[in-house]
Amino acid sequence: MAETFLSIQNVRKAFGATTVVQDFDLDVERGEFVSFLGPSGCGKTTMLRIVAGFEEPSAGMVMIGGKDVTNLKPNQRDIGMVFQAYALFPNLTVAQNIGFGLKVAGVPRAESDARVAEMLSIIKLPEFGDRYPYQLSGGQQQRVALARALAPKPKLLLLDEPLSALDAKVRVSLREEIRLIQKKLGITTIFVTHDQEEALSMSDRIVVMYGGKAEQVGTPFEIYNKPATRFVASFVGTLNILEGTVSDPASGTVSINGSEIALKRALDGKAAGDEISLALRPEAISVGNHPGRDSSIAGEISDVSFLGSVIRVRVGVGKNAVSLDTFNSPSTPPPVVGETANITFAASDLLVLQ
Amino acid sequence: MTQTSITAALEAAQEAPPAERRGVRLPLHWLGVAPFFIFALMFLILPTLYLIVGAFQNNEGEFTFANIAELMQPSIRSAYWISIRISLASALLGGLAGLAIAVAIVRGGLPEWIRAATLTFSGVASNFAGVPLAFAFIATLGRLGLVTVLLNTWFGINIYALGFNLLSFWGLTLTYLFFQIPLMVLIIVPAIDGLKKEWAEAAATLGATQAQYWRMVALPVLWPSFLGTVLLLFANAFGAIATAYALTGSQLNIVPILLYAQIRGDVLHNPHLGYALAFGMIFITGVANIFYIWFRTRSERWLK
Amino acid sequence: MRASRIWAWVTFGLGATFFFLPLIATFEFSLRMKRGVYSFEAYRSVIGDTRFQETFAYSVTVAVMTILLGVLLVVPTAYWIRLRMPHLRPVVEFVTLLPLIIPAIVIVFGYIRMYGSSSPLPFLATRRGTDVLLVIGYATLALPYMYRAVDTGLRTIDVRTLTEAAQILGAGWATIIGRIILPNVLIAVLSGAFLTFAIVIGEFTMASLLNAPAFGPYMQNIGANRAYEPAALAIIAFVITWACMGGIQILARFAPRSANRPN
Q1: Which chains share 3+ C-beta pairs under 8 angstroms with C?
Q2: Any CB–CB contact under 8 A between B174 and chain A?
Q3: Residue C7 has pLDDT above 50, yes or no
Q4: Domain spans, chain C
Q5: Which among C84, C137, C202 is the nearest to B29, CB-wise?
Q6: Which of A226, A308, B94, C133 has its CA 20 to 30 A from that of B302?
């Protein structure tokens, strides 16, 4: 039932000798919200600019709505784009900015005015049409930029780190608003960000990029809970890494700091005695017994920080250190540094890192 | 509310050193800037005011508009008129040429060294005014100038027979362009640099062509800077005398040359009319500068 | 893309022609003093002229004095404004802009009327007094450039913190300005100095109206009476201007980067 709307096929981009994007394949469904997530320099912005038409791919193809647009200029692609630095035209009022795309498309004045008014009400700034960009706050400017991008009813919306320049509070409220508007209009959207929280909270699917490659493509739930690579696991969320050795690959038993842990799944490609890295999310660990958490390792509490509603505890497990959060409860005294403690977790929550 | 204001007051009190709170050292503060203000008063403001006041007085020291009215006599009026025309022509032509060159070196896809070399050269040329500049143009476009001679021997074009004269309106305008164009380049290049790349990209994603982007965004954004700088060039040309004097002697009747002659030997036979002449110059360059500052404030607001 | 690049080259080429033709023509003309052969005879004649040597030396001296006066006037003021009286900034900036608004000929006209030999402050009564007034006039002309250069230099260093740090270490005002502030804005001051030199060395209007034996009026005089020497003088003047601007460019490479730069 899902229909591919944007198709990126085998795209590679090199600037001189350096390859910034390689082997990039992605199909985006109509109305889907897909994030490109990764650290700076991972190629996510370059990939977005290839979709926009500002960069020409060295190889590969970009199709929008079944049409090959690889060689089309940006102004022929029917896209809307929002930039990190707002990029509103300073000489035009808010209404003129929003109406810019309609004007160059030759839309009649009355129709254009109606559309601008509609967009102003969608971004909840109906009274701001006559103001100039310099009279608006950053958050307001970015909402106008969104309205400007959407006014000509583009087929595809590209968002290039639109929230990075804003302060934390505005960022959270605006990301909810963007997602709401996107869902309401049902527009296919690519969102570039380095902020995992933004990507996790807004996206239908996330493409985690690293070194010019897509490391993993999946829903936020999959990316967070089943990271495919060590990079994804460490980039998305906080992660505790435990180094151990394989005791029995067939039954999936590993030894960590003297404790035998049964993973209950075969470790393909490993031999007994091999080093192995396992990862655990902080929220999957507790100190002492916890219902449903079947495995435990002995450790020693090395640090306790009181953060208000939670207490962050660091536990040394051999040469590894594990961070975990426990809820603060006034009646229970907090753990004490130097005490020995068992950390418990469910063996099925352990992620095997490649 | 009360809480914050008390905190703010405490902070303010802490910031000020004890000596300042007593207010005893306040006069000493002014001592730091006194030399500057005394200098400015004595050698900039008072001499100018002396002339301005003199412009509105008669020989007996009584207030009068007679001197200003006398500026309307044909010879003085024509001096102002030709000064304004030369300044305006050199400012507009210099402005347009400077803008074109600036756009070419910043956005034309030319190699980086061309931009650097042009800016350095502009710094030199904008300061290469006065007597030597006049010599250079005499050697180029004077009756025996290289270009004049070569045009005649190679193409048989005698520009002087065709009505050109270096010691004329167009000759002087052309000479002024040698410092006007570079001045425009120097001032407008930062403004063109201030055009954000994202504006062009945003316009492109909205379906605009390159030409539409320039017409609807880039040029309107540059417009106040451009217009302001043209006014600056106007004032720059209007007050200049050395180039014109070295080029034409007293052949060309422009205001600064008239004033020069008046200072030298009271050719108007009325010292107060001389003051009025000076006042007229300040008035015109002053108005040009006020608009320049107004336009600049406007463009800074945009390009922030 | 292609078309716009051609257009840019054409514009640049036209501009280059307009600016290089007069220079080439002037240079060529300056070499033609001896009939039939190119020679540096005009330059030899100019440089050998004692009037040239005297006026040039006079103008160099005046330029150096102007720079000293400008620095003494501008550095403490700009520093004090940044440190203690930021509310006066707009006033001082406006005053430093005035010489761009009031033409030099008007300023010197005012001097002649106010400081003539029969006035209470008769600068113009003596030769020495006239020289002083010329230096003062030039310092006024250079004020906008000098102030801007120094103020920009002060902005890149954090004046307040440097001053407070020096005060905590027990430094007095002379030490602070002479050993902390001045060395840090030296590059900016020198840039202003070069620009001042370029403006002052061939200045005509003020020197001529104050009857000073300066290089500018000398050039004008030669221009009215000789044929080839003016071209040589123009080339010499152009080289001096170029050297001053080149000096500023080289200095800019040594300028301190802004203290509170991001990254």
Answers
A1: B
A2: no
A3: yes
A4: 48-259
A5: C84
A6: B94
Count of domains forming chain B: 1
Interface ipTM: 0.88
pLDDT tens readout for residues C231-257 = 999 999 999 989 988 888 888 777 665
Domain C48-259, CATH among 1.10.3720.10, 1.20.1600.10, 3.40.50.2300, 1.10.1660.10: 1.10.3720.10
Return the residue of A nearest to B199 by Cα.
A87
Q: Which residue of A has its CA nearest to B194?
A: A90
Domain stops at, among A211, A235, A259: A235
Say how far apart CA A72 and CA A76 lie, in whole Å. Answer: 6
- As a whole number, mean pLDDT of residues A65-71 equals 90
What are the φ/ψ torsions at residue A21 (nearest 5 degrees)?
A: -135, 135
Distance CA A224, CA A282 (A): 12
- Could you tell me the CATH number of the domain that includes residue A280? 2.40.50.140
Neighbouring CB atoms inside 10 A of A283's CB total 11
**Domain residues for A291?**
240-352
Number of domains in chain A: 2
Residue from A171, A169, A176, A121 nearest A147 by CA: A121
Cβ–Cβ under 8 Å, residues A132 and A140: no
| CB within 8 Å: C220 and B246 | yes
- Other beta carbons within 10 angstroms of residue B96's beta carbon come to 14
**Are A226 and A257 contained in the same domain?**
no
Establish if B166 belongs to a structural domain.
yes
Closest CA to A72 of A57, A53, A55: A53
Contact present, B78 and B292 (Cβ < 8 Å): no
